[in-house]
């Protein structure tokens, strides 16, 4: 069963606008959440993370929001740039190295 | 600064053949792992190792073997390749925090 779900396989936004990528999880033991970005023919690279003791973490144009009661997190990219076009994976962990679970990914396309 | 290096990048196998995907890291991380990426499934953990001499199974270990004789290397062996093992494979290391560092991937097709 998929414990981390990204229900939107794709998202298209205009350059300069906001991109919002969503992620839901089912396991209440998850307490650390990450977003990874993947370009074609490359490995995923770490983008931003958030611990369950916070509800928001910001890094430049990227902000991750966590709603623990709804078991939902989102990644906001403002303003979106064409170079942000990639697949974004949401991941969640309960603190053990072997329990990190990934979502299926959302392909973001930012149009110039 | 190589980070995590995987070889080969592309491979075509016949059903029943065996092969080894190589992975080497220069980050001195104790934790290493192998994932496979399939459409609509995200990244799934195959095997992992918390240090030299120690390995364990992840979510989808069947059909794969691993060994960890050194901190730097973590090869993944396909014992008898099946079409269901057609996938993109990523080797990864993990620091003391929860951040995972991935290699560039190995594209495997089993015909």
Secondary structure blueprint with pairings:
The complex is a heterodimer of chains A (112) and B (111).
Chain A: E1 4-5, E2 10-14, E3 19-25, E4 32-38, E5 45-51, E6 56-59, E7 62-67, E8 72-77, E9 86-93, E10 101-102, E11 106-111
Parallel strand pairs in A: 2-11
Antiparallel strand pairs in A: 1-3, 3-8, 4-5, 4-9, 6-7, 7-8, 9-10, 9-11
Chain B: E1 4-7, E2 10-13, E3 19-25, E4 31-38, E5 42-51, E6 54-57, E7 64-66, E8 76-78, E9 87-94, E10 100-102, E11 106-110
Parallel strand pairs in B: 2-11
Antiparallel strand pairs in B: 1-3, 3-8, 4-5, 4-9, 5-6, 7-8, 9-10, 9-11
Keywords:
heterodimer, A: 112 residues, mainly beta, six-stranded mixed beta sheet, five-stranded antiparallel beta sheet, 11 strands, 0% helix, globular, B: mainly beta, 53% strand
Task: Offer a concise description of the structure.
The complex is a heterodimer of chains A (about 110) and B (about 110). Chain A contains no helices and eleven strands.
Report on the architecture of this protein.
The complex is a heterodimer of chains A (112) and B (111). In chain A, the strands form two sheets. In chain A, strands 2, 4, 5, 9, 10 and 11 form a six-stranded mixed sheet that branches. In chain A, strands 1-3-8-7-6 form a five-stranded antiparallel sheet, with no helix packed on it. The radius of gyration of chain A is 13 Å and the shape is globular. In chain A, a hairpin with a 2-residue loop joins strand 6 and strand 7. The N and C termini of chain A lie far apart (38 Å). The mean pLDDT of chain A is 94. Chain A has no helices and eleven strands. Chain A has strands at residues 4-5, 10-14, 19-25, 32-38, 45-51, 56-59, 62-67, 72-77, 86-93, 101-102, 106-111. Chain A is an all-beta fold. By secondary structure, chain B is mostly beta strands. Chain B contains no helices and eleven strands. In chain B, strands 2, 4, 5, 6, 9, 10 and 11 form a seven-stranded mixed sheet that branches. Chain B has a four-stranded antiparallel sheet with strand order 1-3-8-7, with no helix packed on it. In chain B, a hairpin with a 5-residue loop joins strand 9 (87-94) and strand 10 (100-102). Chain A binds chain B through residues 2, 4, 6, 9, 32, 34, 36, 41-46, 49, 89, 91, 93, 95, 97-98, 100-105, and chain B through 4, 31, 33, 35, 40-45, 48, 50, 56, 58, 90, 92, 94, 98-105.
